[in-house]
């Protein structure tokens, strides 16, 4: 039987071959996520969201029961599981490749036991048990860079800590976290690198990381994931745009990242992003005909 991490990475590679990158569709089972808080908190609505993501072409479904917007507080594991567990089981039953977006080792373990394939850790291994759980379950582990817990961030993800060169610093921080994950039992081949756009970074920091995406891709030997979708740093180009009015900027960011070699993009608007990537394939090569 194919193990979880192999399935996860095979899905990524298959999608890269088809359209340049894998699409991770976001399913927030939360009352307070920045873009769609409350829309999918009801289990029936969350299941319908999973259906929509798959119908629109998501390669991976990322399910979370804890918002990660700046200033958010941790949600107890019991409450997270009450929100997400049946949704994870439903997505797995639908045949989806599933990642569980959590900072809780307990939540990760339960969802992996229920069929999820990867853990999406935005805490950057604040709890090392997350790595132990992923390693022990043969799951993939997405390590998302940050330098502070979500509740200590404010505003637009800005953080007053200093970076020398933000791209080089993020790479160095991530390599150290990856080494720690390997020491805790996660094979390096199971890792995915996420630079954490908007996490403990100002808007200009996030734009600089996006601009130099190719530097990140070339600096690590694992797939790179970018999650720019609808994030508030995009208001640097449109100050008054609400989250659902940042779709154009989100797609542009995703396209730039994919052209730079990023292999996974995490998005709210799967169909629109898929269309953009598919047009790129059609006009850029002979691999696919209309």
Class by SSE composition: alpha/beta
Radius of gyration: 17 Å
Q: What is the total domain count?
A: 1
Record the strand order, biggest sheet: 6-5-4-3-2-1-8-7
Contiguous helical run count: 10
Q: Can you write the helix and strand succession as a string?
A: HEHEHEHEHEHEHHEHEH
Beta-strand residue fraction: 5-15%
Overall mean pLDDT stands at 91
Helix content, binned percent: 40-55%
Per DSSP E runs of 2 or more residues, the count of β-strands stands at: 8
Q: Which architecture per CATH?
A: Alpha-Beta Barrel
CATH fold field value:
TIM Barrel
How would the global form be characterised?
A: globular
Describe this structure in words.
The mean pLDDT is 91. It is built from ten helices and eight strands. The N and C termini lie far apart (36 Å). The longest helix has 18 residues, at 166-183. It has an eight-stranded parallel β-sheet. It is α/β, with parallel strands linked by helices and 290 residues long. Helix content is 43%, strand content 12%. The chain is globular. It has helices spanning 4-19, 43-56, 77-93, 105-113, 129-136, 166-183, 203-211, 213-219, 247-259, 270-284, and strands spanning 22-28, 60-64, 97-101, 118-121, 140-144, 191-194, 225-226, 264-267. It has one domain (4-284): TIM Barrel.
């Amino acid at each position: 039987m194919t193990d979880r991490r192999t399935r996860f990475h095979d899905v990524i590679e298959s999608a890269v071959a088809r359209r340049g990158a894998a699409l991770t569709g976001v399913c927030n089972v939360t009352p307070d996520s920045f873009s769609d808080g409350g829309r999918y908190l009801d289990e029936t609505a969350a299941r319908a969201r999973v259906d929509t993501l798959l119908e629109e072409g998501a390669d991976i479904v990322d399910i979370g029961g804890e918002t990660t917007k700046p200033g958010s507080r941790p949600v107890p594991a019991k409450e997270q599981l009450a929100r997400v567990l049946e949704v994870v089981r439903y997505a797995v039953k639908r045949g989806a490749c599933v990642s569980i977006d959590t900072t809780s080792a307990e939540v990760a373990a339960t969802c992996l036991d229920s069929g999820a394939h990867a853990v999406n850790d935005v805490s950057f291994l604040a709890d090392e048990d997350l790595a132990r759980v992923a390693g022990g379950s043969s799951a993939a582990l997405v390590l998302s860079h940050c330098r502070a817990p979500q509740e200590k961030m404010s505003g637009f993800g800005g953080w007053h800590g200093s970076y020398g060169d933000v791209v080089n610093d993020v790479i160095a921080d991530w390599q150290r976290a990856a080494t720690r994950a390997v020491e805790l039992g996660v094979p390096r081949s199971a890792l995915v690198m996420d630079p954490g756009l908007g996490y403990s970074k100002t808007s200009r920091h996030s734009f600089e990381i996006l601009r130099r995406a190719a530097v990140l891709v070339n600096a690590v030997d694992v797939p790179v994931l970018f999650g720019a979708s609808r994030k508030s740093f995009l208001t640097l180009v449109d100050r008054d745009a609400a989250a659902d009015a940042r779709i154009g900027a989100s797609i542009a960011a995703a396209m730039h990242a994919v052209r730079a070699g990023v292999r996974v993009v995490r998005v709210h608007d799967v169909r629109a992003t898929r269309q953009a990537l598919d047009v790129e394939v059609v006009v850029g090569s002979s691999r696919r005909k209309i």
